[in-house]
Specification:
CATH architecture of the largest domain: 3-Layer(aba) Sandwich
Largest sheet: 6 strands, parallel
Radius of gyration: 21 Å
Helix content: 25-40%
Distance between the termini: 37 Å
CATH superfamily of the largest domain: P-loop containing nucleotide triphosphate hydrolases
Oligomer: single chain
Strand order of the largest sheet: 3-2-1-4-5-6
Number of strands: 15
Shape: globular
Order of helices and strands: EHHHHEHEEHEEHEHEEEHEEHEHEHHHEH
Length: 359
Amino acid sequence: MKKYFKIGLDVDDILFSCNEYAVALANEEYGFEPPMTVEEVRSWGKTGRRTDVLLAYYRREEFVRSQPLLPGAAEFVKELSRRAEVFFITALPPHLMGIRAARLMEAFPMVPGENIIMGSRKELMNVDMLLDDGGHNISASGSAYPVLMRRPWNRHMTGCISVNNYEEFLTFLDILMDPAAYQWEEGAGSRVIALVGPSGSGKTGIMEELIKTGSAVRARSYTTRGPKGGEETDAYHFVTPEEFGRMERAGAFFETTRYAGNSYGSMLKDIEEILERGNDAVMAVDICGGIALKRAFGKRALLAFAERPKEELIAAVLERDCPKEEKVGRILSLDTELRNEEFCDLTVHGAEELLRQHC
């Protein structure tokens, strides 16, 4: 296959275990009670919490020399190299660069050594796509498609293109390289209608109208947020953050996302049960959830982008009953979220248009 894309891959916590490995070493060295978990890692740099001890490990030669390869990383890079030109873009102190380069060449011989780029100014790297777990790198990236790998420390990030695993990233790449391969196809049977769009775009209203007219059945997802005023209690499965965390670690969800400090997750079996009954399933998701649905259901997944003028989106956010910080975050993410239209099968301005065209 012709290599249309140049793809930059971060290394720590994308290919090699970093934070989880450091947490394990810290628990052994310091004997923390209760043991530290990777869920406590919220950001890079000092935070004044016990996770600050992890920073010292990142600068040790033995740490960089012994970081475990993440499960599936070698197969992922091998598959990615068949489809695109791969670059490793990694930031670490100068005295560790040689160790990192040697490990990369040993673990990933399919990528030439000259494609190893050392440096923290990732916004200067001329690649088409960047896969990184650092929210600051995604926000500043100059690549056409910066993609965030979801990790506990970047859960505050909203609006950006994000994936939960290697398979979803490969699916996203396939959608970019050959959109027709994943384009929704009429006549493929019961389908999943996934409504994508920024906060205030009307996704929920369109979904409720489809349910009301009997055109689709709600695919209930799980969330850690509480019910909103006037919201039907069957709109979500409301669970505590602890319950959600246990379910996520057990692999119960096929896709998860975070928005405005809350977690959301969907189970594949819940959607499949609706489809097996001959009904269309409908749900409101971010683009991360949309990519996961495309991977799971292919041409049976219809991604509909809910369009609304930017001025109205901003007004809708300002009118919401939520903290100021949340409003600021939603407004700042608007431009990024509006770009997600290009990854959807169609654009609609309301339920009537969607019903008229495709239901």
